Amino acid sequence: MDKERFISTIKDNQRIIHKVCNTYCRNQEHRKDLEQEILEQLWKSMHRFDGRVKVSTWIYQVALNTAFLFYRNESKHQQKKVSIDDSVITIADKTIDPELERRVAKLYRFIDTLDELDKALMLLYLDSCKHKDIAGILGISETNVATKISRIKAKMKKEFSHKQTISHYGNG
Amino acid sequence: MEMDDMKYTWEQYDQHLSQRLQVDEEKIRNSNLFETQEQMEYPLVSEKVDLCGNILVTTILLALALRLADDLRYLALGLIIAAIGVIYATLSLKKIKLLKRINYFHSPIVKLQLELASTKRSILRMRKLEMALFPLYLTSLIPITAATFRGADLFQDTTIFIAQAAGALILASLGVFLIYKYLYDKRFKKAEEMISRLKEFEQE
To answer: CA 20 to 30 Å from A112, out of A58, B95, B130, B147?
Structure first.
């Protein structure tokens, strides 16, 4: 694949990379490093992409696998093979509806409480990936995907109702 | 916040990102990203270097032992070293095979993580065996190197030989014990925990 096609693929799927980095790294410096690592792995493995799955599914696969390796070896990621001074994917206009910002922050706080595998599952689910695709990316059965999603839902319900109760009594 | 609210928030967030996210194409073009080739992972390179080093050292030691083969004791030590060298080489080849099998970025996440953890566990097991044989390897090479480089026949002066061999054996065994305890055992435990967690995740 040539550079221009690679760049256009990145442009089309920048949201996936941005969300994976935000989910697995809360620290800005690490986020930038992970972004570079994902770009590098995508470039290196792109020639092996055979089109059997959608490009977005494949990008998820590479990005999440890279995030997993990065997550487990964060301290070892000191030597940079690729030199890009700053993030390649940036938010041009940082203004955001305060209500949306609050809700997104709450969502990320909840995702932060999940372990790394559930984080991936949650991210794919929120991005409306089909159960079949989620199962393929994670390497588990579709039934298992459904079971886990309902468990996460239950956990979320419990967590938020617990917080509401605390704030209710706190205010009362 | 219910799951439906959550999905709705996420969709809004996604829309927000689609309007505002931008890729700095120039930064990508000017980076050395495109110069990076598919490279071998560090453990694989390290194993290959280990294999070559081991073959070289064992061959040299065996050649030195054969030069002293008039005395059958040196020949026996040379054969011990060669046998251990063959075991080391076999283990290195096995490790290389295991590491090469891993498909880093085209495997489902759980499968890749399981492969990585199982490979790590197998490699740690092999390294433990290598470490266990090391004191014997070290003790065997002392008389050969002493005879070759210092012209000293340690078999003539058994007291010195026993003292040197025992010293080397004690130090090497202590080193092996400490490395086992503080490095391999912890890593092995972590790999085992990871495997059971992944299997649980896979089967739940």
So the answer is: A58
**Does some domain include residue A170?**
yes
pTM of the predicted model as reported, rounded to 2 decimal places: 0.77
- For residue B18, the number of C-alpha atoms closer than 13 Å in the C-beta half-sphere is 8
Nearest chain B residue (CA) to A118: B201
Amino acid at B22: Q
> How far, in Å, CA of B72 to CA of B169, rounded?
22
DSSP state of B70: T
CA distance B47 to chain A (A): 19
pLDDT in tens, chain A (172 residues): 588 889 999 999 999 999 999 999 878 888 888 999 899 889 888 888 888 888 999 999 999 999 988 876 655 555 556 666 678 888 877 788 888 889 999 889 999 999 888 999 999 999 999 999 999 999 999 999 999 999 998 888 887 776 666 555 555 4
**C-beta of residue B177 within 8 angstroms of C-beta of residue B98:** no
**Any domain includes B77:** yes
ipTM: 0.82
The CATH number assigned to the domain holding A59 equals: 1.10.1740.10
What's the total number of domains in chain B?
Answer: 1
Domain that holds residue B157: 40-203
